Amino acid sequence: MRKLILASLTISSSLAAQSSPATRPRTAALRGSLEHRLAQLVDAPPFDRATWGMYVVDDRGRVLYRRNADHFSVPASNTKLVVTAAGAVLLPADYRVTTSLYVNGRVEAGVLYGDLILYGRGDPTWSERCFSVDTLAPGACDSAFTAIDAIADSVRARGIRRITGKLVGDGSYFEPTLIHYGWNAWDLTWWYAAPVSGLGFHDNSVDFHIAPGPGLDAPPVITWSPDLGLITFENRARTVPPDSSSTIGDNFFRSGGGWSIRAEGTVALGRKPWVESVAVPDPNLYAARALATSLGRKGVAVAGGAMSTTDSLAYRAARCCGSPLVEYRGRPLPDVIFPILNTSQNWFAEMLLKVLGREVRPATWSPRTRSRSSWRTCIATPKEPRSWPRCRTRASRVRCSSASRARRWKAG
Q1: Omega of the bond prior to 332 within 30 degrees of 0, cis?
Q2: CA 19 to CA 310: how far, in whole Å?
Q3: Is the pLDDT score of 366 beyond 80?
Q4: For residue 375, is pLDDT > 50?
Q5: Which segments of 370-412 does DSSP mark as H helices, in order?
Q6: What integer best gives the mean pLDDT of the chain?
Q7: 210 vs 34, 235, 265, CA distance in Å?
Q8: What's the fold here for domain 96-181+281-333?
């Protein structure tokens, strides 16, 4: 069994802000006990000016080293380093999440009599973004529909032109709880607290494109994408003088189960257009509707529309007793890690941690999981608890990319 030893650490922001004299690089190996070797590292310039919180255990839970382990701190998105390190160690470098399509019925003469099941296993990469710093490199960037269209093309290539039943987004690969019990209710509106399930599309959020109206007191111009016909939107905002503040960014509200969204507040005349991203309430329905939309564009009709489930027993027979109609392998592990470390994308980190837990044992948030401080992150094996810090204002949530509440996440 491979051993994974990770320590949670927090480095004060003053470390990055201060300049330090050049130090000679260390060339000789450190010697002595683990405690002595770690002390040599963190007590040497420039790290001696930082505040460190460290708690190291082995794969049997034995404490090997601690330093300020019970002190409160706010590591913010530094916790993403732990998640990505765990992913890099525990998963193969060429690991790809496989999404499957199962037939719950029969196929005859181009007609699928029954339901088509879209079964996700935690692929977060069905989104509009670049997965490399070289955005001009071939294959570096995807549209929101790159993966969805590829799946739809595969369905059509198998001769199917009509589905009499529903297209079901099945997210039951993960536990049915989509939102952690400790997440702040207000945060749930926004992209950085998007729900986590076996399926994900466009970061499980909708992008609202905002621009000032044509004149004072006119409604601002607001459109959204992707538009899959799921959202009802009400624009109550108004355009205000150029020297006024724009408050609409903090005034998007959801109701009606999360699919009805209204915008209030103000947009300053002359301000450049920008985007606010709002989380969707049901990622499995969102992905299923996206695939149904793509199939429709390609001439494959879905008579029953789209629906979703997180019930692992609902379509178990279709999964266990037949071969998939289509299998789609997502981007490799480095492309999952890239948005987490490059743009500090929260939802990718959440999905990766769930994948890690599911690859070892069922991935759950457990109310029994507690840590002795609000910051400690300790992964000795993937079943250890992981806690996220709290950011109390929206500005600070954005700065720390919404590691925005003290989450206790048990990965298995």
Answers
A1: no
A2: 51
A3: no
A4: no
A5: 394-399
A6: 84
A7: 54, 11, 12
A8: D-tyrosyl-trna(Tyr) Deacylase; Chain: A; (3.50.80)
